[in-house]
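Handout, page 2. Input:
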Amino acid sequence: MLPFALKAVWFGLSASGTLSCWVVLIALARTINIWWLPLLYCSVVTALEGIFCLGMIYHMDPFQMPDAFRLAQIFVISFSALVLTGVALTFIWATTASVIWPESVNGSAKSTLSWRHVYFIPLLVIPTVFAVAQIVLVVTLDAYAPSDNFHADVTGHLWICLLGYAGMPMIESIPCFCLTVYAGMRVAR
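Output:
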């Protein structure tokens, strides 16, 4: 079992990191005059860290957490991680697309990062589909037994983790990597 002092330090770092995230990204939003992306990122980080920090009620001991809270932690952490991946994908797509197709933007940050309806796919559709699929499998296969950890997580049938933060971000990063390489080659020409 992990010592409580370590859990308390982790809690403090998580809470202070979340507050710092808000300060920095609000400053970024003011600078580039785009609010939707930084506020979405901060809100999702707050949900992610919030459900993690709420575990302090149970001394961050999954053995003391009720089943409903453990399931909520698994779902919110997975969904939040997938939405954060979607935010990164959206940012990468927007900035790289402005390099590949410069005629589609006027060169300003506001034009490059302006909202497009296609962003619903990485920000809402993909996270919802995979987080719901993961939680359905977790409940169906009873894969959420308590373990010695800071938070509740999938404990049985670990392949289920691949639908959440352990697999989908890697898979989603592959097209972004290819797009970035292509943009880099285009700039180098």
